Amino acid sequence: MIGIKSISMSEQVNNPSTPKVTVAQFGVGYWGPNLLRNLVVNPHFIVKHVVDQSYERRGFVRSLYPDLEVSDKIDVVLSNPEIDAVVISTPVRSHFELSMKVLESGKHILVEKPMATTEDEIKQIGIIAQKKDLVAMVGHTFIYNPAVQAVKKIINSGKLGKIRYIYSQRVNLGRIRSDVDALWNLAPHDISIVQYWLSGTTPIAIKRTGMAFVQPGIEDVSFLNMEYPGNIMVNIHVSWLDPRKVRRMTVVGSEKMIVYDDLAKNKVTLYDKGIDRMAVLGENMDFDKKESFDYNHRSGNIVVPKILWEEPLQVEIQHFADCILNSIPCFTGIDHAKQVVSILEKAESNLSSAFSMNT
């Protein structure tokens, strides 16, 4: 994919000339262990310190990585000049404050999604990162997924024709959060993918509907509807109250259609299907009159593209290293982070929801 440089891990292992970034990590909760695992195995990183407020989580880290320094104090990291970068995987509400402190201390950041809770906060992060010439990257991991990249390539090729609409489902039974609702927890993945596929185009209309069933004020299910320039519709359905786990996105074009299913063995399927307007010969040898048209339901070949799989988080972590060491433009940097959070903010301001505690 253009803009992302991926280096074979096997080519770098035990290479003494491999440049290094000394890194710390804040937070090892739900997603944090995955980030830490990829940092530890990446030869471009030296993991120096891990911070978590939970005694149990610190013990968990020590059991896996006994040589790592572990504490509950971020100041130990901020004041350490040997540490070049920090990965932040803490609750969403802490992202902005921690990001600003880390950047002020002169260290690069990779922040788990979303980067912050407002577009203004991300702008402030961007200003200080630019001022200090530091990398500020958000962990929209699905952008680094080879299947998502394959769909982007097909869209750019024009094979789908004109994009008509995109819809996605990201649902499951649990995991229920209390710090953010289902939209802020789950939809950043789908929004970031849509923004990537549509080349960062800004939606011209946003509407959200949702409902809270389990916790007061914390929506368990949301439907996000967006309209993009060119009459492109997007619908995103997220929920943590569904009976089955679904991670599927469909792109419908005028010529062909494509399905990306993250849980399927074949993650991308291209369908040569559509409805074409077909001229019908009229009584007066006339093909041009409006009433002389019929519609043909086309159902052609189904193609499963070959995709070389690589763990998306591994690619993301490697890209973070490349941005720091090789000054590569950050693929999910400030601009991308602002796009996603701006949509979430507008969705929140246009919320049409009802509250119920009855199940």
In brief:
The protein has helices spanning 9-12, 32-41, 55-64, 74-78, 95-104, 119-131, 146-157, 182-197, 312-326, 334-349; strands at 21-26, 45-51, 69-71, 85-88, 108-112, 136-139, 163-173, 205-212, 221-228, 232-239, 241-253, 257-261, 268-279, 293-303, 351-355. It has 359 residues and is of the alpha/beta class. The strands form two sheets. Strands 14-13-12-11-7-10-9-8-15 form a nine-stranded mixed beta sheet.
Blueprint (SSEs and pairs):
Blueprint: H1 9-12, E1 21-26, H2 32-41, E2 45-51, H3 55-64, E3 69-71, H4 74-78, E4 85-88, H5 95-104, E5 108-112, H6 119-131, E6 136-139, H7 146-157, E7 163-173, H8 182-197, E8 205-212, E9 221-228, E10 232-239, E11 241-253, E12 257-261, E13 268-279, E14 293-303, H9 312-326, H10 334-349, E15 351-355
Parallel strand pairs: 1-2, 1-4, 2-3, 4-5, 5-6, 7-10, 8-15
Antiparallel strand pairs: 7-11, 8-9, 9-10, 11-12, 12-13, 13-14
Helix pairs in contact: 5-6, 6-10, 8-10
Percent helix: 25-40%
- Discrete helix count: 10
Radius of gyration equals 23 Å
Strand order within the widest beta sheet: 14-13-12-11-7-10-9-8-15
Uncertain segments of ≥5 residues (pLDDT<50)?
1-14, 352-359
Mean pLDDT: 90
Largest sheet: 9 strands, mixed
Q: What structural class should be given to the helix and strand makeup?
A: alpha/beta
